[in-house]
Amino acid sequence: MNHGYDFPRIQFANQEDKQEFSKFPTKTGRRSLSRSISQSSTDSYSSAASYTDSSDDETSPREKSQVNSKGSSDFCVKNIKQAEFGRREIEIAEQDMSALISLRKRAQGEKPLAGAKVAGCTHITAQTAVLIETLVALGAQCRWTACNIYSTQNEVAAALAESGVSVFAWKGESEDDFWWCIDRCVNMDGWQANMILDDGGDLTHWVYKKYPSVFKKVRGIVEESVTGVHRLYQLSKAGKLCVPAMNVNDSVTKQKFDNLYCCRESILDGLKRTTDVMFGGKQVVVCGYGEVGKGCCSALKALGAIVCVTEIDPICALQACMDGFRVVKLNEVVRQMDMVITCTGNKNVVTREHLDRMKNGCIVCNMGHSNTEIDVASLRTPELTWERVRSQVDHVIWPDGKRVILLAEGRLLNLSCSTVPSFVLSITATTQALALIELYNAPEGRYKQDVYLLPKKMDEYVASLHLPNFDAHLTELSDEQAKYMGLNKNGPFKPNYYRY
Predict the structure, then answer these.
(1) What is the pLDDT of residues 401-420, one digit of tens each?
(2) Which of 185, 214, 335, 442 has the largest CB neighbor count within 10 A?
(3) Cα–Cα nearest to 345, from 366, 321, 330, 375
């Protein structure tokens, strides 16, 4: 049963692309691109310590022998001694994630995930820790790793390890570390994942390529990012997706709240923490006017920035125009810009040619999942000097003295350089938890070997769990009104094709 959804299929450019899964495109709903394993979310040239890690110990966690208070060493984190501090971070996050806690309390007696062995690859923050511990409370066994080398909160990873979750992640991993951690997450004697929760598709890709027998036995995949969803559709198109997958990214509760409202706040936080910039009067170009771009533009405009937009999609471009933003080509305005922000999901949106033409002091950053949007590799040349001025902030200096300020080496700005609101992540995390429960408990035959959207009824349920935070009171349909509209009084209230 597919709940009546039609899923778009992305066409392969040629037969070679169709046959080579390792080069399948990685992210963007409307944009097609290819990314090899060397262009994954691991590309990096330097590592950074956690903001909250006061230790000067530069020893790789892989070389340390650590055990938690229970005597277990089945984890790899920066410093297990930070667990107490991490626990306080998690407790703070729980205060603004009441809906997820409510779901935990309602369902933990039933243990709907009993027997589930979940391999997870997400940002490891206080908020995702609340999700992980919710899954454990619902009966799941979890092993976890990070989807981004800079976004892990070391103290939170330590707290999870102390609680018994096998977590393999630390802030500032190298590329080799990143894939080592993913392998440790899934390669465990006597333990075999039967569910995957992914953010970006790297874990799914690794299991598919390295452990095909495990992949075939997985009962379901839950993917929350544009990148990972795009990769799943490519796998499905090639006829190689042998398990059902849930596209959480395009659920209304993820798309509208995480992508739009979360980025509307976190873009400012990330820029302020790294650069102390004043936004009023600044010339800013935002590349891409999807949900993330809309959130960024709204925030920047509200603080007095003069914002223009680049777009390839005429519908998004028209939306930008109607919202009061000038739609331009990047090469037309790049010389005048004080900030260049990418959020397209594409590759090489900002090229070396663009970077060469930027003015002194221009801030360049990315709000997309991966580091493919800014051609950072083109800046690794002998004539340019790199100067690390603070954590996650590099000055790239041209021979004439011009400096471009590059944030997080072109990686996701908000989770690399700041934090994101707990409340909005509660919405996404609740959606992920329900998707896992749905796939794990679905009767045989309900879901085929394909990619599905979250049933609308579940989207509405997630939203309803969060309304009490605002003391919001829903109006109820009368029997006559429900009959007139052709609706069930309890929902769903919109058809599948409705665009919120």
Answers:
(1) 999 999 999 999 988 888 88
(2) 185
(3) 366
List, as residue ranges, the binding site for NAD(+): 290-295, 311, 414
Give the span between the Cα atoms of 345 and 33, in whole angstroms: 9
CATH number corresponding to 67-250+420-462: 3.40.50.1480
Among 210-219, 225-234, 250-259, 482-491, the least confident range: 250-259
List beta partners, residue 122: 146
Is there a shared CATH topology between the 67-250+420-462 domain and the 260-417 domain? yes
Note the pLDDT of residue 362. 98
What average pLDDT does the segment 152-179 reach?
96
Which amino acid is residue 352, in one-letter code?
A: R
Q: Rounded to two decimals, what is the model's pTM?
A: 0.80
Residues marked as binding?
125, 199, 224, 254, 258, 290-295, 311, 414
Q: How confident is the model over 456-495, as pLDDT tens digits? A: 888 999 999 999 999 999 999 999 999 999 999 999 999 8
Give binding residues for substrate as ranges: 125, 199, 224, 254, 258
d(CA 398, CA 109): 62
Close Cβ partners of 374 (under 8 Å, ≥ 6 residues apart) = 342, 349, 350, 364, 366, 406, 410
Report the chain's terminal Cα–Cα distance, integer Å: 24
How far is CA 482 from each of CA 113, 125, 459, rounded to the nearest angstrom? 35, 43, 20
- C-alpha dihedral, 248 to 252 to 253 to 255, nearest 10°: 70
Instruction: Inform me whether the pLDDT recorded for 26 exceeds 80.
Output: no
* CATH class assigned to 260-417: alpha beta
Specify the pLDDT at position 57: 65
Q: How far is CA 267 from CA 36, 130, 295, 368, 468, in A?
A: 28, 23, 8, 11, 27
Domains of the chain, residue spans: 67-250+420-462, 260-417
Question: What's phi and psi for 45, nearest 5 deg?
Answer: -120, -10
Residue 432 and residue 427: Cα distance in Å, rounded?
A: 9
- pLDDT for 194 equals 96
Angle between helices 422-441 and 456-466 (to 10 degrees): 140
Per residue in 295-306, pLDDT tens?
999 999 999 999
Q: Would you give the DSSP letter of residue 157?
A: H
Distance, in Å, from the CA atom of 416 to the CA atom of 486, rounded to the nearest integer, reads: 47
Give me the percent of the chain exceeding a pLDDT of 90.
75
Question: Would residue 135 be called left, alpha or beta, if left means φ above 0 and alpha means ψ between -120 and 50 degrees?
Answer: alpha
Residue whose C-alpha is closest to residue 325's, from 303, 294, 368: 294
How confident is the model over 131-157, as a mean pLDDT? 96
CB 287 within 8 Å of CB 320: no
